[in-house]
Amino acid sequence: MPQPNERPPAAAPAQPAAREHSLTLENRARLTLTGVTRVISCDETGAALQTPLGDLTVGG
Predict the structure, then answer these.
(1) How far apart, in whole angstroms, are the C-alpha atoms of residue 48 and residue 39?
(2) CA separation for the pair 14, 8 (Å, rounded)
(3) CB atoms < 10 A from the CB of 49, how many?
(4) Which residue has the higher pLDDT, 8 or 40?
C-alpha cells in the first residue's frame, strides 16, 4: 500500500504516431512518395530513403 506522500510510478512515454505515408507508381514513369523524413542517397539507379517506419530502398 502506498505511503501518503509517495508518488505513483511514472507512466511509460507514449509512442509518437507514425506519420501517414504513401508510394504511388504511375505507368512505370513517375514515382510519388510521401512521408519521407530524409533522403540518404539518390542517383540514376535508385534511392535510399528514411521513413518513420524505417529505411526504404527504391531501385530500377
Answers:
(1) 6
(2) 17
(3) 20
(4) 40
Q: Express each pLDDT in 3-24 by its tens digit.
A: 667 766 666 656 556 678 899 9
Domain positions in the chain are 35-60
Q: How far apart are CA 31 and CA 28, in angstroms?
A: 8
Average of pLDDT values for 35-47? 95
Residue 35's closest CA among 49, 15, 46? 49
- CB neighbours of 51 closer than 8 A, spacing ≥ 6? 21, 35, 36, 37
Mean pLDDT of 45-60: 94
